[in-house]
Model the fold of this input.
Amino acid sequence: MTLSSTAVDRIRSLARRRPPAAWRRLLALGLVLAALVTAFWPDVGHPAVVASRDLPAGAALTAADVRVVPLAEPLPGSFAAADAVVGRALSAPARAGVPLTDFDLADAADDQASVAVRVADQGLAGVVRIGGRVDVVSASGEVLAENASVRETRGQVVVVTLPRLNATRVAAMSLDHPLAVTLR
Done:
């Protein structure tokens, strides 16, 4: 039998020892500070404007209609501040809590009007999407409106928003015969 200690014996004796009280207190203080920092750490979500209640299409948005909430992931086309959407109108109804994007909004201007256009090519009417931009063209090839915003589509009818002066002309031409739209 030998009296010299082996490496295994040294490790066992170190494992049995308790760390000094000062080290334990320092470790406890560090853990408490880490818990406090993480408890009061700000939410790192991505801010997005959402509807604060169910909203109808076409109504101009007010500060009471929207609120800013953090989202886990950034949403393309969303707005980070409520003032970016106040004064604009919804192109379609929005449910409470649903993030508003640039596709959901149209400018609420007095010089704008929406017109239902009967499209000659029914296949093209199915390709046109809400929020898209189109030019309205007569059967003779005359451009009646440029860069009109698509508000709604139903069958052969496409509802577009455009300047009021062009809207009356497009509406009158649409009564006589179907018109064409070109996609932008």
Summary: The first helix runs from residue 7 to 16. The helical segments are 7-16, 21-39, 122-127, 164-176. The radius of gyration is 32 Å.
